[in-house]
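ingest -> validate -> predict -> emit
validate: passed (alphabet ok, no gaps, 53 aa)
predict: started
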Amino acid sequence: MTKKFGFSWSWKRALGLQKIRQDISRNIALPTTRYGLERKLGSLLLRFLFGKK
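emit:
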């Protein structure tokens, strides 16, 4: 295993893919990650079942 010296590099960030995903996510109001989608859908389901807070 090699050591990382406080530096990591991501080709996705270098090409600007992260920024594109963020912009799309904000425009359609849906998260693009699996965890984010699960949180949003779970929240909607609970709100549907139990009503608004």
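The chain has one domain: 11-50.
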